[in-house]
Design brief:
Blueprint (H helix, E strand, L loop, with lengths): L1 H27 L23 E11 L6 H4 E2 L6 E8 L13 E8 L2 E4 L7 E3 L1 E10 L5 H4 L9 E2 L8 E5 L5 E4 L3 E9 L2 E7 L13 E8 L9 E2 L4 E2 L2 E2 L6 E2 L1 E3 L2 E6 L2 E2 L4 E9 L5 E8 L11 E9 L2 E10 L17
Parallel strand pairs: 1-11, 12-23, 16-20
Antiparallel strand pairs: 1-2, 1-6, 3-4, 3-7, 4-5, 7-9, 7-10, 8-14, 9-11, 12-19, 13-17, 13-21, 14-15, 18-19, 21-22, 23-24
Length: about 350
């Protein structure tokens, strides 16, 4: 009996140990957190030696201009580009293997990025460095993406409306002390703003809301991007003064039209030219809708929702709200949430 009891106690102890161990593992699992800087077999030469540290990242996109991970952070989508810049303690460029002071990455799955061809892993001798990242949250042509490798004195120009530029710096000033292999949380911010036009077709008591309507086209005049300057070490694109001289055509998904714009001020009233169809695409009408968006100021990271609706075939406007960004990889799943 004594031996049987001892065996039972031993089995119970082993069971509790395994249960506690697996429980600990589960608390560490977050399907939205994945380690990046994947090393392919032909890059084994990049392994760090004694006295050097490999820097890896956990990467997110701040999709709602908030600061709590459970509200607005999400993995970077596939086909996005991120460039990490390294500077020494004096603020001078630190050249990786004597070639460049930046490393280019591309996301190959949601939340996962890999080194682009010709780039080496981020391995640094012990010391202090400044780390910054710049990126584009779009699948775009190489000539547009090349702006990420053309920061002069930490500044890039020749930016464009319609592109979701994103940026990050380590901590408040970018400064990090390195003395061991490190995995860093990288939460990239939207450095531009997003305009969202919504056609509301929901039934409202006492109103004859037309729900047989479809957006065909929406155009407007965005800020003057010829003034644009991206300051990497401030993690911001400086606000532009006033609208440009060319119109832009917004992207359309269902009852939403959306477009990324440079941060700007003195934009005055934003006027949209809207072509909609009623019943079928042969019955189209053109309308204009004017909105005072944040007193003419587009703040970086904000998405502005402008709501319109139709009674019979007459247009009506509503107030503007700051909401979460439309995820351009899944625009059909968008549900606007007002942000206070």
């Amino acid at each position: 009996m004594k031996n049987a009891l001892s065996s039972y106690r031993l089995m119970l102890i082993l069971f509790l140990f395994v249960l506690s161990f697996t429980g600990c593992l589960r608390t560490d699992i977050d399907l939205n957190i994945v380690e990046i800087d994947t090393i392919s077999p032909d890059e084994d030469k990049d392994k760090n030696s004694s006295g050097e540290s490999r820097i890896k990242f956990v990467t997110y996109l701040n999709n709602e201009n908030v600061t709590r991970a459970d509200e607005g952070y999400k993995p970077i989508a596939t086909g996005r580009y991120i460039t990490v810049y390294i500077y020494d303690l004096n603020g001078d460029s630190y050249y990786i293997q004597g070639v460049d002071n930046f490393i280019n990455y591309e996301s190959y799955a949601p939340g996962r990025i890999k080194l682009m061809p010709g780039n080496t892993s981020l391995i640094l001798p012990s010391g202090s460095y400044y780390l910054y990242a710049v990126g584009v949250n779009d699948t775009i042509e190489s000539q547009v993406r090349d702006v990420l490798n053309n920061f002069t004195g930490g500044v890039a120009e020749n930016l464009s409306n319609g592109i979701d530029y994103i940026g990050w710096q380590y901590g408040d000033e970018g400064l990090i002390s390195v003395n061991q292999d490190t995995s860093i949380n990288m939460v990239l911010d939207h450095l531009c703003a997003q305009l969202v036009l919504f056609v509301d077709t929901a039934a409202v008591a006492g109103k004859n809301i037309n729900n047989n309507v479809q957006i065909e086209s929406v155009t407007f005049t965005p800020p003057d991007s010829t003034q644009s300057e991206w300051y990497m070490m401030n993690n911001e694109i400086f606000q532009i003064s006033g609208p440009g001289s060319t119109t832009a055509t917004m992207n359309i998904s269902g009852m939403y039209a959306y477009y990324v714009v440079m941060p700007a001020y003195d934009m005055g009233t934003t006027e949209f030219t809207i072509i909609v169809s009623f019943g079928d695409t042969s019955n189209t009408k053109t309308f204009t809708a004017s909105f005072d968006i944040n007193d003419g100021t587009y703040n970086a990271g904000d998405a502005y929702l402008c709501k319109i609706w139709f009674q019979d075939e007459e247009i009506y406007f509503d107030e503007v709200n700051v909401v979460n960004w439309i995820d351009e990889t899944q625009p059909g799943t968008y549900v606007p949430t007002q942000i206070n």
